[in-house]
Design goal:
This protein is an alpha+beta fold. The protein is built from 5 helices and 9 strands; from the N terminus they run ββααβββαβαββαβ. Strand 4 and strand 5 form a beta hairpin. It comes from Vibrio maritimus.
Length: 192
């Protein structure tokens, strides 16, 4: 299945995309807020895991026009109907709205496909653009933690659950996000 947005096409991973995935994940700048760069060996193992482990629902984000590799998005399924979302885009696509466009298309599809009711995300406390992105997508911060890589915020969003009336943000499960006709610039097509 593929998902098409105004500027991108999201495709399932194949062996053909391995070198692009490796280059993205060994770059120190791309992974600055993701616990540092992978080595070539660890990036290769991660790619093989994404291809073979059914708990990962991952797609490559490609430029719709040129088919250049732009980034990686995934959900790692957890217990029952929960998952953790992650994303990384090449530095040349930062601050252009690409991540917003891609995640607005990917999340509803993945939530529906996987039956996700609760999605979590962890973000370095100093990664302001990712914090803004998650807030824009309806995620709410519920905690803060620290590990060997430093402090991070914990975010969550729920789907198919009545929204908290006190919430300051709309959720991607709310009609405003599921009705793509209200977001002409971000209208998506899903192809199976």
């Amino acid at each position: 299945m593929t998902i098409v947005t105004r500027r991108t096409i999201l495709v399932p991973y194949t062996d053909y995309l391995e070198s692009d995935f490796l280059m993205l994940n060994v770059c120190a700048k791309n992974r600055k807020h993701m616990n540092g760069p992978h080595t070539l060996a660890t990036a290769r193992r991660l790619f093989q895991t994404i291809l073979s482990d059914s708990k990962f629902y991952a797609m490559a984000a490609l430029d719709l026009r040129t088919r250049d590799y732009m980034g990686h998005i995934f959900i790692e399924r957890g217990a029952e109907s929960e998952g953790e979302i992650g994303y990384i885009f090449d530095k040349q696509y930062w601050n252009k709205g690409i991540a917003t466009e891609v995640l607005r298309a990917f999340i509803p599809d993945a939530v529906h496909t996987l039956g996700i009711k609760r999605l979590e995300a962890n973000v370095d406390t100093d990664h302001a653009s990712s914090i803004r992105l998650l807030s824009k997508l309806g995620f709410e911060q519920y905690g803060q933690a620290k590990d060997e890589h430093g402090p991070y915020y914990q975010f969550q969003s729920t789907f198919g659950v009545p929204e908290n009336e006190n919430s300051a943000h709309g959720s991607l499960s709310s009609p405003a996000y599921l009705d793509n006709s209200r977001h002409q610039a971000l209208k998506t097509q899903t192809h199976k």
